[in-house]
TrEMBL record:
The keyword Glycosyltransferase does not apply. Keywords: Coiled coil. Residues 172-196 are annotated as: Disordered. Residues 47-109 form a coiled coil. It comes from the Eukaryota. It comes from Chloropicon roscoffensis. This is At4g15545-like C-terminal domain-containing protein. InterPro entries: At4g15545-like, At4g15545-like_C. Residues 194-259 form the At4g15545-like C-terminal domain.
Length: 264
C-alpha cells in the first residue's frame, strides 16, 4: 500500500493527526461529516431565506396583480368617460351647427319681418292718409246735411204729420242752432241750460259713426218736415245715441224742450 506524501498536509495538521491510519480515517470521516453538516445547515438557512424571499415576492406579485386590476378598471372607466366625453362633444357640435342654422334662419326671418314691418307701416300710413281724406269727405258731407237741416227750419211745415203735429216753421231744431238764445226771463231759459246747436252737432258728428250721424240728421229732417212728432223724434234719437251717448241725448232733448214744446 502506498503512503500519502506527508508534504501534502501542513505541519500543524500533521502534528495533531493520530499516528494510526485507521484513526486518521476515522478523524477524516468525522471531519467530513461535520463539514457536510455545516454545509447542510448553511444551505438550509439559505433555503429558508429564499423561501422567505419567495413568499415576499409572491405577496408582492399579488399586490402588483391587484394594482394591475385596479389600473385596468381605472383605464376602462377612463375609456368609458372618454367615450362619453366624445359623444357629448359630438352632440354639442351637432347642437352648435343646428343653432347656427337656426340663427341664420332667424336672421332671415328677422329680415323678412323688418321688410314686412316697413311695408305694413307704409300701408298703415297710406291707409291713414286715405282715412283722413275719407273723414274730410264725411265732414264735408255732414256739413252739407247740417246746412240742409238748418235751412229746412225756415220752410213752412208740410202737412201730413197728423192733427197732433206741432207747427215748426219758426221753432224747428234748425232754428235752435241759428236763432239767438232766449232771454233770461223766458220759461225756456229757466227750465233747461243754454245749449249751442252748432256745438251739439259738432259733438254728435265726432262721437257718432257716419251711418248713425246720417240717420240722426234724417230723423231731424223728418221732424222739421212735420212727418213725425217730437216724441217720435226723441225715441229714434235715443235708439241712435244708445246708452254710451246718453249725454248727447239729454242735450238734444234740452234743445227740443226749449224750441219745440211737448204735447199736452
Amino acid at each position: 500500500m502506498s503512503r500519502i506524501p506527508t508534504e501534502a498536509l501542513p505541519r500543524e495538521i500533521l502534528a495533531v493527526l493520530p499516528q494510526e491510519p485507521y484513526d486518521q480515517l476515522d478523524l477524516a470521516h468525522r471531519i467530513n461529516a461535520y463539514a457536510y453538516t455545516q454545509k447542510v445547515a448553511v444551505l438550509e438557512a439559505e433555503a429558508g431565506q429564499l423561501r422567505t424571499q419567495a413568499s415576499q415576492h409572491k405577496n408582492h406579485v399579488k399586490t402588483l396583480e391587484r394594482r394591475i386590476e385596479n389600473l385596468v378598471m381605472e383605464v376602462n372607466d377612463a375609456n368609458e368617460k372618454t367615450k362619453q366625453v366624445l359623444d357629448d362633444q359630438n352632440k354639442l357640435v351637432a347642437e352648435k351647427n343646428a343653432l347656427i342654422q337656426t340663427v341664420k334662419k332667424l336672421n332671415r326671418d328677422v329680415a323678412k319681418l323688418e321688410s314686412f314691418k316697413r311695408h305694413l307701416l307704409q300701408t298703415l300710413q297710406d291707409e291713414e292718409d286715405s282715412k283722413d281724406s275719407m273723414n274730410l269727405g264725411i265732414d264735408l258731407a255732414s256739413d252739407r246735411m247740417i246746412s240742409n237741416v238748418l235751412s229746412s227750419a225756415s220752410s213752412p211745415m208740410v202737412g201730413g204729420a197728423g192733427a197732433g203735429a206741432t207747427p215748426m216753421a219758426a221753432h224747428g231744431l234748425g232754428a235752435a242752432a241759428q236763432s239767438p238764445e232766449p232771454k233770461d226771463g223766458s220759461p225756456a231759459a229757466q227750465g233747461t241750460p243754454k245749449v249751442d246747436g252748432k256745438e251739439f252737432f259738432r259733438n254728435a258728428r265726432s262721437r257718432l259713426g257716419y251711418d248713425d250721424f246720417s240717420q240722426f240728421l234724417q230723423n231731424i229732417k223728418e221732424l222739421n218736415a212735420g212727418r213725425q212728432t217730437r216724441e217720435e223724434t226723441l225715441r229714434k234719437a235715443q235708439e241712435i245715441f244708445k246708452q254710451q251717448n246718453a249725454d248727447l241725448y239729454k242735450t238734444f232733448e234740452g234743445l227740443l224742450s226749449r224750441h219745440i214744446p211737448g204735447t199736452v
